[in-house]
Amino acid sequence: MSSAAVAYARKNHPRFLDELKALLRIPSVSTLAEHKGDCRKAAETLLADLKKIGLENARLIETEGHPLVYADWLHAGGKPTALFYGHYDVQPPDPLDEWRTAPFEPTERDGNLYARGAADDKGQVVAQVKALESLLAANGKLPLNVRVLFEGEEEVGGEGIASHVAAKPAHLKADFALVSDTELFAPGLPTLCVGLRGMIYTELEVRGAKTDLHSGMYGGAAPNPFVALCQIVARLKDENGHILIPGFYDGIVPPSPEELAAWRSLPFDEEEYRKAEVGSKELVGEQGFSVLERTWARPTLDVHGMPGGFTGAGAKTVIPAKALAKVSMRLVPGMTPACTFELYKSHVEKIAPAGVEVEARMIHAGDACLIPVDNRYIQAATRALREVWNKETVFIRSGGSIPIVGDFERHLGLPSVMMGFGLPDDNLHAPNEKFHLKNFELGIESVIRFLEEAGNL
Amino acid sequence: MSSAAVAYARKNHPRFLDELKALLRIPSVSTLAEHKGDCRKAAETLLADLKKIGLENARLIETEGHPLVYADWLHAGGKPTALFYGHYDVQPPDPLDEWRTAPFEPTERDGNLYARGAADDKGQVVAQVKALESLLAANGKLPLNVRVLFEGEEEVGGEGIASHVAAKPAHLKADFALVSDTELFAPGLPTLCVGLRGMIYTELEVRGAKTDLHSGMYGGAAPNPFVALCQIVARLKDENGHILIPGFYDGIVPPSPEELAAWRSLPFDEEEYRKAEVGSKELVGEQGFSVLERTWARPTLDVHGMPGGFTGAGAKTVIPAKALAKVSMRLVPGMTPACTFELYKSHVEKIAPAGVEVEARMIHAGDACLIPVDNRYIQAATRALREVWNKETVFIRSGGSIPIVGDFERHLGLPSVMMGFGLPDDNLHAPNEKFHLKNFELGIESVIRFLEEAGNL
Predict the structure, then answer these.
(1) Would residue A212 show up in a list of annotated catalytic residues for this protein?
(2) DSSP sequence for A319-370
(3) Could you tell me the sign of the dihedral formed by the alpha carbons of A284, A288, A291, A296, in that order?
(4) Are the beta carbons of B68 and B160 closer than 8 angstroms?
(5) Helix extents (H) in B54-116
């Protein structure tokens, strides 16, 4: 690796780590009103650094929540433009008493840096910025054009960035996005995430009597909305995980034989996953599909809660007038939120038992996304990662959604290179979040080398 | 009606009404700590009156909550002994702004007396006491032996009286109970309630993963406890209201052809009931049974709430580690709580879908009860009611449970004469509770004549 920028990064690594620690000390918890000032302070800290390392047009973009951080460097005439994305906000640190060291006092231990936000996502944001610094400091320029857009509301829904992107402002024009908010499939294994499931999140409301009734007086004559909801849900998904909504699976684009073969070669043990991650007595889901297929490339349906009625301790003999179910479906390529919602809505209306009225409401939705592995930026990233990590890159998908990736694609036409450096055991959203120090170092080098490769396209 | 006691009651009616009003002015709301003193005051008011009219051994019996009121008159050698039951506590008056006149300032309007507790149960308690006063004042004695036991915790579960009765103290030895806490089936129609459903109230807990999981990452592999609960509930009761637990209906004692014929002649319109009381688009339940059969003489199963998971506004994509359902079953004669619970428990364990563990817990239970209409005290009551109301008595059941009736039967071996004088539209537990003034008057006379009839047995 002969890159001058990589040499600069290695030399300056202790300072880079200090700067990351300084950012981690700011408790930028986006969901808590009392940390509003801390969120702005984290944004201003990043803004100041982007200016200092030589980016231009650096500014905060106000939203209804926490500000976006924008900066650019656009002097690589004829070269592609990258849009860097990450977020500076963090999850709340609770439960505090389960942290071995204070969540906002970053602490090195066993080759890791422990702090809230270490991996999600400040460590990755700083890796991006320090890669830019290294390139600018070593070469006086970047190998391609770069725009940076960091947000401070990722942990609370990302409304600000979503509406900003939806407005398609000219300053977001680019050729691809570099999204650093994901993880390696396994330690030391360079990983690109190339697919995300979409989703629809719905609320199902069932109404029976006009008012709450006593189950002694009316049980046997008045419809029970919870029983009706259970009967409906039981007719949405069977005990083999097969979804019973007619047309639900129509049009699904399955993974290619090559992609499936690649997944089979990943270091993944279903029994180990069951024991260590899930902890249930068995795994469930559609027969004939592996766990990775079921969670990455198959749609599913889950119920998250069933509000209404009596939920306290003890007993209350109420037949509630209404009951709700929070029901979401994960979608895969070939499915659309609108069409899936229509199929679902007309099915639940059809199967609702006698005596009740049912209403299906959409709460929010997101498209599935799939980035072809032969995309030139994905290929450039692969070359960079092979060099830095000394291994072939694995292409994975994620069962979850990263809404911003869909927004970049839908509104700006950008494919995303999801290159992240977390590890599966980094305790995101949990006590003792950590970032592996070696991954911080190799993450910076990976971004440097990726930009150099992408600049050669 | 030549009874001297009845003549006394008629003459003293204005004062009886004033005494009822005085009791209604005491806000003896048993569930609110700030009314603890008022509950005691109501108990002491009744105690003083029982002494004044000539009952003996009058005393408060302390419980862990509000006191019981006890008194007796046991000088009718060779005659049966009646145990009078009623309660002096009342429901909270909320919502206050829906009352036309203040809940604790009894107000006469349109032939009714409006106040919290007017019908439930102070009006009926005072009717019992004034019947005793009339008999003692007119005759210097009672036609049979009487024990009085009033409680102050009926609206909060009745723990105090339940444990007192369970201890079978000698001072509760009697031949039958007179329970005045029910209503007429229709205005002017003398009514005895001779059957109550029993119940088991359970909690069903389903556990999947060891911790809450993200439905994006794990949806399709991790078991979803809510989906499993829905599948279980859907296999407990079908869409025709038929309960699917094997053995559930075995041994049920159906109403006699005579009883069914009597129910068919009651002034009851199912469509009117649907519209006015339930307000659902259809009634539900087992086919081939009338509404009165389904709510009085058939078992049923209801779900009251399903705690767990995410129940807030909006969306959270959690697969909760566990979910609960509050499930109760109403039981009818021929079923026992213990046996029904066993059938239910083994069935849910058998039908639980793969991947989850299920646990059924009993929260509380009560026996069904049925008093034969040819019971001599029921027959005596019928003769008294015919004379006072000038109509044949109707025998009804109630779908609910009155736990004290089961306790009297189980612990003391007493059949209960459930002779109450409320009306279906008395707004129990709601704003503008009322007691029909004529029913207060005829209620007193009914109790007088019933005791006279029972004294002749």
Answers:
(1) no
(2) E-SEEEEEEEEEE-TT--HHHHHHHHHHHHHHHPPTT-EEEEEEEEEE--EE
(3) negative
(4) yes
(5) none
Q: Work out the number of other CB atoms within 10 angstroms of the CB of residue B424.
A: 12
Considering only the beta carbons, identify the residue of B199, B217, B237 that sits closest to A227.
B237
Task: Decide: B12 and B451 in contact? Cβ < 8 Å.
Answer: no
Among the listed residues A301, A444, A318, the one whose alpha carbon sits nearest the alpha carbon of residue A384? A444
The neighbouring-strand residues paired with B192 are B395
Does the ipTM exceed 0.95? no
* Buried-exposed string B1-30: b where 16+ CB fall within 10 A, e elsewhere: eebebbebbeebbeebbebbbebbebbbbb
B209-225 burial, b if ≥16 CB within 10 A, otherwise e?
beebbbbbbbbbbbbbb
Based on its alpha-carbon atoms, the radius of gyration of chain A, rounded to whole angstroms, reads 24
Nearest CA to A221 out of B277, B69, B110, B321 is that of B277
| Short-list B25, B61, B72, CA closest to B153 | B61
Neighbours of B94 (CB within 10 A): 12
**Which residues, including other chains, have CB under 8 Å from residue A427's CB and lie 6 or more apart?**
A433, A434
User: Measured between beta carbons, which residues in chain B are less than 8 angstroms from residue A327?
Assistant: none
Length of chain A: 457
| Beta-sheet strands, E only, within A36-75 | 56-61, 68-73
Averaged in consecutive runs of 10 residues, what is the pLDDT profile of chain B (457 residues)? Answer: 89 98 97 96 98 98 97 97 98 91 97 97 98 98 98 92 96 98 96 96 97 93 98 96 98 94 95 95 96 98 96 89 97 96 98 97 92 96 97 95 90 97 91 97 98 95
pLDDT for res A1:
52
Which of A62, A50, A192, A52 is closest to A125 using CA atoms?
Answer: A50
One-letter identity of residue A419: M
Instruction: Report CB contact under 8 Å: A226, B291.
Output: no
- DSSP-derived letter for residue A147 is E
CB-based contacts of A396, cutoff 8 Å, min separation 6: A185, A191, A192, A193, A194, A195, A263, A266, A296
Angle between helices A437-455 and A13-24 (to 10 degrees): 110
Domains of chain A plus CATH, in order, are: 4-196+368-455 (3.40.630.10), 198-252+299-366 (3.30.70.360)
Q: List the 308-337 stretch of B: residues with Cβ below 8 A of A.
A: 308-311, 314-320, 323, 325-326, 328, 330
Catalytic one of A89, A133, A433, A441: A89
Name every residue whose Cβ is closer than 8 Å to that of residue B59 and which is 6 or more positions away in sequence.
Answer: B47, B70, B71
Integer Cα distance of A14 and A5 in angstroms? 15
pTM of the entire structure? 0.89
CA distances to A48, A454, B368, B442 from A68, in Å:
13, 26, 66, 78
* Beta-sheet pairing, A68-73 with B176-179: unpaired
- Look at the alpha carbons of B204, B206, B212, B213 in this order and tell me if their dihedral is positive or negative: negative
Q: Using an 8 Å CB-CB cutoff, list chain B residues near A232.
A: 230
Residue tagged active-site, from B38, B120, B153, B154 = B154
CA angle in degrees (0–180, nearest 5) for B419-B388-B270:
55
Tell me what pLDDT residue B104 has. 98
Interface of B with A in 182-221 (CB under 8 A): 197, 199, 201, 208-211, 213-221
Mark the ranges of chain A whose per-residue pLDDT is less than 50: none
Residues constituting chain B: 457
CA distance B319 to B356: 13
Q: What is the three-class DSSP state of B53?
A: helix
Is the distance from CB of B263 to CB of A262 less than 8 angstroms?
Answer: no
Q: How far apart are CA A277 and CA A300, in angstroms?
A: 19
Check if A342 contacts B (Cβ < 8 Å). Answer: no
